[in-house]
């Protein structure tokens, strides 16, 4: 999204092209990958909430600029997967999603001079941080990406699935209210 804010639409589209390629290779949206190399990816992030939502929101923002429905259709499988993986995990967890917490709560210095991150599998981040804490950020990102996916389905005349996704969106919104 930073590329778009600087006017680099083609570069953002290329990022989606690369992400779509990596999705084809790894059958998921990796947290990070090596450029030009398809035999390794980093699986330590949040491939079922944050990363897919961010990809969809980037595609949404690209579409707002280029109005190119064909661009979205070329990336249909990636777009559908990004939505469905979030929803699958949310459904399994009573309509809640976690937040990876890297660069925020998980990797925060407790006091000056102490090492940051996780040592021997134990978080030394903020007191009370736990990796399985449910996240409003992840739920809101899922709702925002799902909202765009529903718009995409309408634009693409793929209306048979819309009511199902609208029901999922309602469950997520209810979860936000309850939790």
Describe it.
With 179 residues, the chain is mainly α. It has helices at 2-5, 9-26, 50-66, 69-74, 76-92, 136-155, 162-178, and strands at residues 32-33, 41-42, 118-119, 122-123. The strands form 2 sheets. A two-stranded antiparallel ribbon has the order 1-2. Strand 1 (32-33) and strand 2 form a beta hairpin. Helix 3 runs antiparallel to helix 5 (76-92), helix 5 packs across helix 6 and helix 6 (136-155) runs antiparallel to helix 7. The longest helix has 20 residues, at 136-155. The radius of gyration is 18 Å and the shape is globular.
List keywords for this structure.
single chain, 179 residues, mainly alpha
List the helices and strands and how they pair.
Blueprint: H1 2-5, H2 9-26, E1 32-33, E2 41-42, H3 50-66, H4 69-74, H5 76-92, E3 118-119, E4 122-123, H6 136-155, H7 162-178
Number of helices: 7
Query: What summary fits the major beta sheet?
Result: 2 strands, antiparallel
Structural class: mainly alpha
Please report which band the strand proportion falls in: under 5%, 5-15%, 15-25%, 25-35%, 35-45% or over 45%. under 5%
Which value, in Å, is the CA radius of gyration? 18 Å
Strand order of the largest sheet: 1-2
Shape: globular
- The helix fraction, in percent, is 55-70%
CA-to-CA gap between the ends?
A: 29 Å
Spans of at least 5 consecutive residues whose pLDDT stays below 50 are none
Order of helices and strands: HHEEHHHEEHH
């Amino acid at each position: 999204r930073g590329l778009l804010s600087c006017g680099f639409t083609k570069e953002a589209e290329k990022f989606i092209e690369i992400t779509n390629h990596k999705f084809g290779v790894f059958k998921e949206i990796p947290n990070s990958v090596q450029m030009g190399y398809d035999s390794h990816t980093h699986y330590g992030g949040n491939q079922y909430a944050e990363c897919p939502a961010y990809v969809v929101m980037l595609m949404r923002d690209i579409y707002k600029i280029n109005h190119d429905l064909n661009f979205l259709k070329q990336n249909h499988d990636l777009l559908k997967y990004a939505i469905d993986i979030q929803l699958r995990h949310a459904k399994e967890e009573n309509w809640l999603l976690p937040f990876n917490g890297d660069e925020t709560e998980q990797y925060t210095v407790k006091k000056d001079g102490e090492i940051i991150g996780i040592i021997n599998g134990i978080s030394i981040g903020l007191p009370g941080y736990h990796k399985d804490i449910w996240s409003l950020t992840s739920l809101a990102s899922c709702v925002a990406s799902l909202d765009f996916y529903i718009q995409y389905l309408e634009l693409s005349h793929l209306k048979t699935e819309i009511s199902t996704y609208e029901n999922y969106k309602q469950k997520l919104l209810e979860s936000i209210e309850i939790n």
